[in-house]
Specification:
The complex is a heterodimer. By secondary structure, chain A is an alpha+beta fold. Helix content of chain A is 32%, strand content 16%. Chain A has a single domain, classed as Ubiquitin Conjugating Enzyme (Roll). In chain A, the strands form two sheets. A four-stranded antiparallel β-sheet of chain A has the order 1-2-3-4, covered by helices on one side. Chain A has a two-stranded antiparallel ribbon with strand order 5-6. In chain A, α4 crosses α5 (156-166). Chain A starts with a helix and ends with a strand. Mean pLDDT of chain A is 87; it is low at 16-22. Chain B contains 13 helices and 15 strands. Chain B has helices at 2-5, 14-20, 47-55, 65-77, 110-121, 139-143, 155-167, 227-232, 237-252, 263-279, 287-294, 302-321, 369-378, and strands at residues 57-61, 81-85, 126-130, 147-151, 171-173, 179-181, 189-195, 198-204, 330-334, 343-344, 359-363, 388-391, 399-401, 426-432, 435-445. In chain B, a hairpin with a 2-residue loop joins β14 and β15 (435-445). In chain B, α4 packs across α12. The termini of chain B are far apart. The chains are: A alpha+beta, B alpha/beta. Chains A and B meet through α1 and α2 of A and α3, α6, α7, α8 and α9 of B. Chain B: This is NEDD8-activating enzyme E1 catalytic subunit. Chain B: Keywords: ATP-binding, Ligase, Nucleotide-binding, Ubl conjugation pathway. Chain B: It catalyses: ATP + [NEDD8 protein] + [E1 NEDD8-activating enzyme]-L-cysteine = AMP + diphosphate + [E1 NEDD8-activating enzyme]-S-[NEDD8 protein]-yl-L-cysteine.
């Protein structure tokens, strides 16, 4: 091994003088290259790489459902992809205030694939699909906003009307709680 | 102890000399299996002692539970040139097992204190501390070591270092005409890790044996509790602590980013978690549990660290001196229920993004990017219909071409000659809907035939 090491030193010096190799890659970034290049354009989904084309790790997804309680609204989600992706899930925050059982007032999103059911085989496309599904089918069983969940479970019509009313924007009282929704439409 | 005080006494080197100046039944005589071809045979000689004392530079990554043990082991084994890198400072909770640190050292950099201690205790050893993140050092710095021993606590840091060490490997053409790693550029890694009564030791010869990225799938994703459980239906003390940490604090201080190490913050979370636990009638919220949950502390047991570090140091010694066959390539230490310590071999992943062999393609420097992608479609080894490409250190940015929603941003590159995008010999990372993972494509510039008029 000593021979190998002395050889190493000579060669190492020569190589350092020449080009210094291929450069180190961030594996998470390559995976994002694949994920982003394979995203399909879809109706009701807009993706904005707000730091420019070179930053694939931070973007916003605007979802405009055409069906369900929240049809007609536009909801922006901020997605931050960690360097450990796809070992760890992307971090998603809803930036649009919305009356929804699985999204709280701070924008936390309760979506199983973003936390306990995240698997490295899932992609950005699956995350977006999950968000679309969440906006289409709010789920009263896993509440982050208890008022919304109770209303959805107890009186679907009242929930539908409340969401519709929230789309008009401005301050609004729901079960004694003050909300200030943005105007939608 | 006299042997430690006089680094030049024959006594100090008696044991190491026995191992390195004579052959024996355990000496490596080409039993490295398939790793090296032809096998590297042990040649006993007195120079080996001088080599590990004066020339072989060892890098210890991490000066925590494993790092302290490693530094002590390596220094006592005779390694004379040790570097240690760690970005942390000493916390009072480290003192029960990180035995190079004392009460008075709390708050000081781990690397610095560890280096001082070892140099004071083991005469003749130079330990150079580096108090910074591993990401701050560049390729040239890492190239200066003969072996790197890792005592890290995160997958992220292991992954980074693994990718760095794989990127240092150069390739050459073998006598059989194959593209093979130039062994003089391969710097072996020894990785140790512990959790409670369990641990592992692993050797990685970058681009020769399975690298960390090859087997990344084997790590289970971090366990996460559903946010809705934390918010609405807490069942355990941890759920209450996470509520205060993840939901209450950001609500109360929307601008503040909490310092998880700050006792004031830990107390804040503890008191709020306690309130919540009372409301839901959940027992078990203590300050210690709070610290464990928010800092994601895994239980550390000093003796497990000692066992794993000792195995790592032995492997580093065998790798550098070649006096005995080294671990090929993984040891599990399971001491939780009885004791079981199997070894097995991780296999390489041919498609590995980091260490995969890659495909070499030649093209004239004036080839346009469009033409290069056409060649990728035609090449029977690739047959890529819709490739996206990137290259580290590209002349116009790392991304060369993206399909899909960003495609319009890159069409301007299509007509550029590839020599304006990257250098000859660059490694392109190619993804394609038809291929899982990615492909490393090495593009070498070849001159186009000149047609004489």
């Amino acid at each position: 091994m000593i021979k190998l090491f002395s050889l190493k030193q000579e060669k190492g010096k020569a190589a350092a003088a020449a080009a210094s190799g291929e450069g180190k890659i961030a594996p998470g970034l390559i995976r994002m290259q694949k994920d982003v290049s394979e995203l399909k354009k879809e109706k009701g989904v807009e993706i904005d790489f707000y730091n420019g084309k070179a930053d694939l790790m931070n973007f916003k997804v605007k979802i405009s459902p055409d069906d369900g309680f929240h049809a007609g609204g536009h909801f922006t989600f901020d997605v931050k992809v960690p360097n450990t992706y796809p070992h760890d899930a992307p971090k998603v925050l809803c930036e649009t205030l919305v009356f929804h059982p699985n999204i709280d007032m701070e924008g936390h999103v309760c979506l199983n694939i973003l936390r306990e059911d995240w698997k490295p085989v899932l992609t950005i496309s699956s995350v977006i699909m999950g968000l679309q599904f969440l906006m289409l089918e709010p789920n009263a069983d896993d509440p982050l906003n208890k008022e919304a969940a109770n209303m959805l479970a107890g009186n679907r019509r009242q929930f539908a009307e409340t969401v519709k009313r929230s789309f008009r924007g401005g301050p609004m009282m729901i079960n004694g709680k003050q909300y200030d929704f943005p105007r939608q439409g | 102890m006299a042997t430690l005080d006089d680094p030049d006494s024959a006594e100090r080197w008696a044991d190491v000399s026995l191992l390195t100046t004579r052959s024996g039944p355990l000496a490596n005589e080409g039993n490295y299996g398939t790793l090296f071809n032809p096998p590297v045979i042990f040649e006993p000689m007195p120079e080996i002692v001088q080599f590990i004392r004066n020339m072989a530079r060892v890098l210890v990554v991490g000066a925590g539970g494993l790092g302290c043990e490693l530094l002590k082991d390596l220094a006592l084994m005779g390694f004379g040139q040790i570097d240690v890198i760690d970005m942390d400072t000493i916390d009072v909770s480290n003192l029960n097992r990180q035995f190079l640190f004392r009460n008075a050292d709390v708050g000081r950099p781990k690397a610095t204190v560890a280096a001082e201690f070892v140099m004071k205790r083991v005469k003749g050893v130079t330990v150079t501390p580096h108090y910074c993140p591993i990401q701050e050092k560049d390729a040239e710095w890492y190239r200066g070591f003969q072996v790197i021993v890792m005592g890290l606590d995160s997958i992220e840091a292991r992954r980074w270092l693994n990718a760095m060490m794989c990127s240092l490997v150069r390739y050459e053409t073998s006598e059989a005409g194959e593209r093979v790693p130039d062994l003089t550029s391969v710097i072996p890694l020894v990785d140790g890790g512990t959790e409670g009564f369990q641990g592992h030791v692993r050797t990685i010869y970058p681009c020769v044996s399975a690298c960390f990225e090859c087997t990344l799938d084997l790590f289970p994703p971090q366990q996460a509790v559903p946010l809705c459980t934390i918010a609405e239906t807490p069942r355990s003390a941890a759920h209450c602590i996470l509520y205060a940490h993840l939901i209450e604090y950001p609500k109360e201080f929307p601008e503040g980013k909490p310092d998880k190490d700050d006792p004031a913050y830990q107390n804040w979370v503890y008191t709020h978690a306690l309130e919540r636990a009372k409301r839901f009638n959940i027992p078990g919220v203590t300050l210690m549990h709070t610290q464990g949950v928010i800092k994601n502390i895994i239980p550390a047991i000093a003796s497990t660290n000692a066992i794993v570090a000792a195995a790592c140091a032995s492997e580093a010694f065998k790798i550098v001196t070649n006096c005995a066959a080294f671990l090929d390539n993984n040891l599990m230490y399971m001491g939780g229920q009885g004791l079981y310590a199997p070894t097995f071999k991780y296999e390489r992943n041919a498609q590995c993004v980091v260490c995969g062999d890659g495909v070499v393609m030649t093209a004239a420097p004036q080839t346009s990017l469009t033409l290069l992608m056409e060649k990728m479609a035609e090449d029977p080894r690739l047959r890529l219909k819709a490739p996206s490409l990137s290259v580290v250190g590209g002349k116009k940015g790392d991304t060369l071409y993206m399909r899909g929603i960003l495609e319009t941003e890159y069409v301007a590159y299509l007509d550029l000659p590839i020599s304006e995008l990257f250098d000859s010999g660059a490694t392109l990372h190619v993804t394609d809907p038809g291929v899982p993972g990615s492909i490393r494509l090495i593009v070498e510039f070849a001159c186009e035939d000149i047609v004489l008029e």
